[in-house]
Amino acid sequence: MRRPLATGLGAVLMSLRVIWGFISILIYVLNWSAIREDVFASADGGLLVPADVADLLLVIGLSALGVWYVFYGVLAGLVFAGANWARIVAMSFASLSIIVVFLDWWNAGIPVTFQTSLASVALDILVLLALSAQSARSFARRNDPRFASTGEPLE
């Protein structure tokens, strides 16, 4: 069975999400002091923690984010190869990401703009649409003996 367009497109969109994530990390690094002040600022304008502790916490956070994006990139490769579990995990992560952005907007009033999370939400929605297509599902289930050639469970 040939790889359907939906599977390839889903993997490409996931890869774009990874690239966008690393660009975001680069932007954070280039604006280090402003990010540190924004995250750790107190009401009087000082820092809640010493600057070296704030720097260490930012390094840990951005490193964890980098590891996450590497994992998501590997997941994109597995989706492209046709692993059904990877397709399901990718759709779950996309759904969770969309829900988190919605909850941030609902509870904290954080606007969904291009500077905050609009690009990632758009990519997550497109990943969901691509990977939930019937052709992507059939391709991912092609080697599973529990499913017929239509990709639907056998009775």
From TrEMBL:
Keyword Transmembrane: yes
Transmembrane annotation, as ranges: 7-30, 56-81, 88-106, 112-133
Record's keyword terms, sorted: Membrane, Transmembrane, Transmembrane helix
UniProt entry tagged with the keyword Membrane: yes
Protein name: Uncharacterized protein
Species whose genome carries this gene: Microbacterium maritypicum
